[in-house]
């Protein structure tokens, strides 16, 4: 009897714990659903649209700010446009001289700035090389493109120079060709007759 009561009590305890676990899991799932349900697809779409509008407005403001800055710098460097319609010759000369002086100053400033930029670039490159030397990293030099057949041709030429072609040639006697050369040097008979006539005419 006591064993049956003990079993029933244990069973009831197990059931109670299972019910508690189930309740906790249901609460957790409800909480998750509630969190997921906050960001619905419609709300996401609206949020994206708002972000795009905001970004477009910021971009427009940035462009306007840059344009205003550009206009300000142009006015500062070039000055306001002069009225040349009603100006006489003296005023026109003065306006041209002012523009020339301003252009001269601008060119001078441009040259100074370019020189400064080149100097800074050189200093940056120098510092980079020093840092790489300290770290032990070396910049790989740019390699020249070389034909892969060039070395093969050079080796073949070297072998050809080393190889003596005269050993392969036949030995020819010089006397074989002497008769033909002598015949070539001899003049034909008819040319001799012409020379004899010339001699006789000269004597007469």
Mean of residue pLDDT values? 78
Gap between N and C termini, in Å? 182 Å
Radius of gyration: 53 Å
Helix content: over 70%
Spell out the helices and strands N to C.
HHHHHH
Structural class: mainly alpha
Give a quick account of the main beta sheet: strands, pairing sense, barrel closure: none
**Poorly predicted tracts of residues:** none
What is the number of E strands?
A: 0
What proportion strand? under 5%
Principal-axis shape equals flat
Query: Count of DSSP helices?
Result: 6
Polypeptide structure, described:
There is one protein chain. With 204 residues, the protein is mostly helical. Helix content is 77%, strand content 0%. It is flat. The mean pLDDT is 78.
What is the secondary structure topology, with strand pairs?
Layout: H1 2-38, H2 41-78, H3 89-135, H4 150-162, H5 178-185, H6 189-203
Quick take:
The chain is mainly alpha-helical.
Spell out the key features of this protein.
204 residues; flat; 77% helix; mainly alpha
């Amino acid at each position: 009897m006591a064993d049956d009561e003990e079993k029933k009590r244990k069973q009831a305890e197990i059931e109670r714990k299972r019910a508690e676990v189930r309740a906790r899991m249901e609460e957790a799932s409800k909480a998750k659903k509630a969190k997921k349900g906050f960001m619905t697809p419609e709300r996401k779409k609206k949020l994206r649209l708002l972000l795009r509008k905001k970004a477009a407005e910021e971009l427009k403001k940035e462009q306007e700010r840059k344009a205003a800055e550009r206009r300000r710098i142009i006015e500062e460097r070039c000055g306001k446009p002069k009225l040349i319609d009603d100006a006489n010759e003296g005023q026109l000369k003065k306006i041209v001289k002012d523009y020339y002086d301003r252009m001269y100053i601008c060119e001078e400033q441009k040259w100074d700035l370019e020189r400064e930029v080149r100097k800074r670039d050189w200093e940056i490159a120098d510092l980079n090389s020093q840092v790489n030397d300290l770290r032990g990293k070396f910049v790989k030099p740019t390699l020249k493109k070389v034909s892969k057949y060039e070395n093969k041709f050079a080796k073949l030429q070297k072998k050809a120079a080393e190889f003596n072609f005269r050993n392969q040639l036949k030995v020819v006697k010089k006397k074989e060709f002497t008769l033909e050369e002598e015949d070539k040097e001899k003049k034909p008979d008819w040319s001799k007759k012409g020379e004899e006539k010339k001699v006789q005419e000269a004597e007469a």
